[in-house]
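[agent] plan:
  1. take the single chain provided in the ticket
  2. run structure prediction with default settings
  3. attach structure tokens to the ticket
  4. add a short note for the reviewer (M.T.)
[agent] executing step 1
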Amino acid sequence: MHRPTRETNEPESSGSNDQAALFGKRWTLVQLEERKLSPGRPYIEFNGDERRVSGSGGCNSFAGTFEIEGSRLTVSRIASTKRACLDRELQRIETEFLKLLETTTRFEVQRNNLRLYADDRLVLAFVSM
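[agent] step 2 finished; step 3 output follows
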């Protein structure tokens, strides 16, 4: 039985490819809405087997769950530690990062870049190194 082969020149941003590329990497935050950030402490990791998300907002670690279907992504039940953050700017970034993470409705992966959207608005961008 002959099976059709997939074109190899398709963009990497095609649903199930995005899902596979999402897992097993540490994604470092580089953009918070329109604000560019130098790669630093905030990061996120997706565990596809457990449907869990975890990472660091910069001062505190966090964990939660996610649902994924094609390019649709929702993150929920985020809980974080409550350590004091002496760097006020990092605390502000962490607070906004975790808030925006729960607004996510869609994602795109292209090579080592991950973009999270709330509807059609880019809210968070990451790189994996």
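[agent] step 4 note for reviewer: Residues 30 and 36 are 6 Å apart (CA to CA).
[agent] ticket updated
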